[in-house]
Specification:
The protein is an all-alpha fold. It has one domain. The chain has two helices and no strands.
Amino acid sequence: VYCDGQVLVTSDVLGLGTWKPKFAKTYLDLNGLITRSVQEYCEDVRSRKFPSE
């Protein structure tokens, strides 16, 4: 396949964002990982599991 040039952006390859370009394989779902981590943090704060001593 002929290609003048291709730019792979780190955020595309690591899955940071909602747009998935067809030219980049996503090796990791950082967007989902960050979302789940923040949700878990919020739940820990609400349930007073964090901060703890």
